[in-house]
Amino acid sequence: MLDALTLSQIRTFVTVAESGSFRSGAARLSRVQSAVSHAIANLEAELNVSLFDRSGHRPILTPEGQTLLANARDVLLRVDAMRARARGLGEGVELELSLIVDTLFPIAQVGEAIVEMRALYPSVSIKLTVEPLGGPIAALMDKRSTLAVVVGEDFRDPRIAFEALSSIRSVAVVSKGHPLAMTSRSMPARVTDLADHLQVVLSDPTPLSGAREFGVMSPQTCRVNTQETKHALILSGLGWGRLPFWLIARDLAENRLVRLDTKTLGRNAELATEAYLAHRLDEPLGPAARAFGQALTSIVNK
Questions:
Q1: Are 114 and 96 within 8 A, CB to CB?
Q2: Could you tell me the domains of the chain?
Q3: Which SS3 state, helix, strand or coil, does residue 99 take?
Q4: What phi and psi values does residue 130 have, to the nearest 5 degrees?
Q5: pLDDT by residue (tens digit) across 219-232?
């Protein structure tokens, strides 16, 4: 009967599948190999299916095992999330709140939310990091941060909960004296025009991007690790690139930067991307983290 399934059996199944062998799975679980083999055999008997093909040197998931592995992971994820929520309900105020924020998100709004949170919990110290691209998600996965503000849809993980916050406008710009600014005054810039000039882009501090490029359209690039550096270099006339509107609104109004006149980079050279508040499903949020999240949500929706 399925009622006889245990979480220990399910966790053992997932661990063996992910580690590639009964021996490795046993080592991860700090159990003897015979106990792990026995647990898998009992689980197979309860489910009335073979989860692993044991005919080779290493056990290989059967088609049934592949199918049920996704269900097993989902069960463990939900149980871990329930345990985390229960722990959070019983725990006191955090000593420290660690936050990581995508460089595209307006940090002033984060500051406002921290002020509101500390009005309720003045003893909580803050650790705040700002990183681009995969940085916020990597920090959550590595448990280096409790909460993250993530911008965009490029990095997702089923172990992370996402709550939409606001839309971030990014504008493709150059300095007013850049050749592309001159081109745009006479006719819209084409893809070939953009490729003829250096593009200033952010580099990912994590391996999550792999070989993917995000919005890179020129073979000539200058890769930087902060939004402030990118902003300064574009202002200097070095090249073109996208910058968040909240950062450059004054530069545009005072004509230090100009929008690229091109249909290649979105209408009016602008794209909108969603920002999310994110946290691990299996880690409890304490009172200060919850207060910060509520404050930030309220601030961005004013």
A1: no
A2: 2-90 (1.10.10.10), 96-302 (3.40.190.290)
A3: strand
A4: -120, 125
A5: 889 999 889 999 99
